[in-house]
Amino acid sequence: MATKIREWPENRNPEQNRAIPLSPSVEEGVLSQSGSGPETETTAGTRPAPDPIETGRALALADFSPPSVHVGERLIRIAYRMGIPASLLTTPMGKKARTRLLATVGNTLPGSRVAGTALRAGHFLVHGAKTPVAQVDYAGAARVGPPLEKVVHSFAWLTDLEACAPREQGAPVAERILAAWLQANPQPPGKPGKGPAWSLGNTGMRLMNWLVHAPLILSGDKAFRSRTLGHIAATARWLDRHVHRAEDNLAEVAGWCGIVAAGLLLPDGRPRRLYGEAGLLKALGELMGDDGGVLSRSPLAQMEAIALLVRLRNCYQATRRDPLPAMERVIEMLVPPLLALTHGDGSLGSWQGGWAVDAEDLAALVKASGVRARPLRDVRQWGYQRAVANKTVLQFDASPPPMPQHARYGCASTLAFELSHGKQRLIVNCGGAASAGGLVPVRLEQGLRATAAHSTLTLDDANSTAVLINGAIGSGVTEVDVDRKTLPQDNGTTASRLEASHNGYAARYGLTHRRILILRDDGTELRGEDLLLPSSRKAKRGKVGFAIRFHLGPDVDVALATDGQGAGLALADGSYWQFRSGAGEVTVEDSLWIDGHGRPQATQQLVIQGMVSRGGGTFGWLLKKMS
User: Fold this and answer.
1) I want to staple 539 with a disulfide (CB 3.0 to 4.6 A). Which of 179, 516, 606, 615 is the partner?
2) Are residues 46 and 65 part of one domain?
3) Do 41 and 84 fall into the same domain?
């Protein structure tokens, strides 16, 4: 799969290089009104100066090679990888050290007080769904929703428990749940994948959480403390052997982070740390692209990767060691692409299984990372385009879906967009496939990953890329051609013009979908055009049904125009927008939007639908702020 991006050289006239002009019905009079906002990216008639390279983006491929160490440490690392016990490498003639923790880790990532309070009351609270602690099958034989499985078996709930109560009150709760888990999982299995408790991702995160939140689980009697420490050591040894068999790249990074944390905090850990650091850097190189976006294209995975590295940094600091410089640069790379998917209210857009993660949660993560950066406007390999005009934010998916081996909740969202104005969301995607199993029923997961769950065009109610079970993505979009430029206007204003096309429907219907979006520099108008073009010289005969969907934000009241060609949109902040279609009748249908806590909210969507010739068609539309 590939994304091609064209940018215009400074010595060429962009109007002479337009890949496809807008039809007169859409282009005539575009941006005829004056106006300029403080966030306009260019001034009239000039090309914007290139953005300065972010600190983290200077990371070279060589930085993902094993960290430079002297010959002795290199030999120790090789020997440990071959299976020689750490005690023989650190103290060949000495007594084996007893298992204990060498330091107490200060956690800088705050948890959810609400979830922690529910836990103290006897319930796991995951995306609004309560599950009694006593009813959870900790062995994992009785399958439950993936979100609950992850929270339970990764011990992510320890962070929430720490956030809601002093250690003296939280420790008894943590120890009761841990005792039940250890009874169901007395020892690691022979190989990974024996239920959710022993997936590599959950195991790596569990080991990390045990070490970071050790005061919560090691405050009981001596026998229980000894048993817990023994299980921590056994889990670390299990990860040493099986980390290469992770279910995906992010799970492997979690496994390596657990190994390095154990190498830092357990006795005789130097060989394990050296081994883990080399493996971690290699895994990070395979997790992300050159622009810092994870290859799964998921903002949730992006957040998880940042959180893992921040917790590992806390482990380094607890032992008074400096984190690997390359690891710090990776954190710097990961933050700006994530910020590119924020709206005016500071929360995230709904992409690739994610939902509108709350601004407070996102801000806490960025603060813990220590990175101060601007959102990336053009995240090329990650595939999201961002345009900001005054108070308006436009997010555009201009890339194929992620490869199956990278994605857990891959979505057929190519050429979908989201639009917000200030703190109000106008156009959204449904989002939330990764939250299925909480208040969102598991049976809805595939539907939330479908093209129709996103604000874009569909043909014959089919996905532009096949959506398969278990998060897999099939055939469909393999290439996206992207063109971005700034249009100067005669009245001295400018506009951001985004154009992209994909081949997801070419094999089945002989048509290529091309979308053009033009956002005025004052943020009050978005003009769009969806084109269906023959993918070969010889067009197929007949017609095929099409639908262009615009899922509306949760606080948008809609009223259809009397002529059936548009709708009025009233927002909670008192502003009023008008939607007009040049492509046929506009109807209103029910929709679903997953909020910042992974909970479903009933919303509505505007739909333009009809039949189009296999020879192609053009469908223009306008979204304009009236007051």
Assistant:
1) 615
2) no
3) no
Determine the pLDDT at residue 57.
38
214 and 85 inside one domain? yes
What's the rounded Cα separation, in Å, for the pair 396 and 424?
Answer: 17
Query: Strands 2-6 and 479-488, how do they pair?
Result: parallel
pLDDT in tens, 458-476: 999 999 999 988 778 899 9
362 located within any domain: no
d(CA 75, CA 81) in angstroms, rounded, equals 10
Distance CA 279, CA 335 (A): 22
Q: Are 505 and 533 in contact (CB under 8 A)?
A: no
- What does pTM read for this prediction? 0.88
Q: What is the CATH number of the domain that holds 207?
A: 1.50.10.100
Same domain, 94 and 18: no
Report H helices in 370-499.
445-448
In sign, the C-alpha dihedral spanning 433, 438, 439, 444 is positive
Q: Same structural domain for residues 98 and 232?
A: yes
- Residue 137 to residues 180, 184, 201, 207: CA-CA distances in angstroms? 9, 8, 19, 20
Read off φ and ψ for residue 622, nearest 5 degrees.
Answer: -140, 135
Do 252 and 188 fall within a single domain?
Answer: yes
Tokens describing residue 407: 């994605």
Task: For residue 408, tell me if it sits in a domain.
Answer: no
* pLDDT reported for residue 153: 96
Number of domains in the chain: 2
pLDDT of residue 1: 54
Q: What is the pLDDT of residue 93?
A: 56
Instruction: Provide the percentage of residues in the chain whose pLDDT is more than 90.
Output: 72
Instruction: For 96-117, give one letter per residue: b (16+ CB within 10 A) or e.
Output: eeebebeeebebbbbbbeebbb
Strand locations in 31-102 (E): none
| Domain housing 167 | 56-287
Which of the listed residues 242, 267, 287 is the one where a domain comes to its end? 287
Backbone phi, psi, residue 361, to 5°: -65, -40
| Per-residue buried b or exposed e for 495-527, using 16+ beta carbons within 10 Å of the residue's own CB | bbbbbbbbbbbbeebbbbbbbbbbbbbbbbbbb
